[in-house]
Design brief:
Elements (H helix, E strand, L loop, with lengths): L3 E5 L2 E4 L14 E2 L4 E2 L6 E5 L3 H15 L7 E5 L7 H5 L6 E7 L3 E5 L1 E4 L9 E2 L2 H17 L5
């Protein structure tokens, strides 16, 4: 099956989101139509990058977001006008960011708003619809600027 698979008679999961090598997912084990995961992360996933696309994107992200802090993870700061009331109240936690993972063949952008200062806080959570749309629009604009059509 290409792209999707059944885990039980009435559930379908997009396999691309369950890559066994993805650092935020843990290990996926498929046996008798059962999937065991540590975490499932909602994300905007751009695949089909070639080596030239990867180099252009890496150069752009290094220049505009700074060198990755951990492996291939970049932090894209969320515009302050899009913060939720709870995120605005947590000024000590700012900046609020999205994690972007760049690999040779894909760019994965989590829909989880994170903070750099702590591993966990109440102001972290899945993006609101406006925040999610902002992330997708921002990433699409970067790809368009670099003439990447993956």
């Amino acid at each position: 099956m290409r792209g999707f698979f059944k885990i039980c008679p009435d559930q379908t999961i997009n396999w691309k989101l369950l890559s066994p090598f993805h650092p935020f997912l843990g290990v996926a084990n498929i046996r008798h139509c059962v999937v065991s995961l540590y975490t499932i992360m909602k994300q905007y996933y751009i695949d089909g990058l070639d080596l030239q696309d990867h180099r252009k994107l890496k150069s752009y992200l290094d220049t505009h977001l700074g060198a990755p802090m951990l492996g291939n993870i970049y932090w894209l700061e969320l515009d302050s006008h899009l913060l939720s009331p709870l995120q605005k109240a947590h000024e000590k936690c700012s900046p609020h960011c999205f994690a972007l993972e760049l690999e040779e063949t894909f760019l994965s952008c989590e829909f989880l708003v994170r903070i750099k200062k702590n591993i966990r806080c109440d102001c972290m959570g899945y993006a609101t619809p406006d925040q999610r749309e902002w992330l997708i629009t921002t990433v699409d604009a970067i790809l368009e600027t670099l003439s990447i059509t993956a």
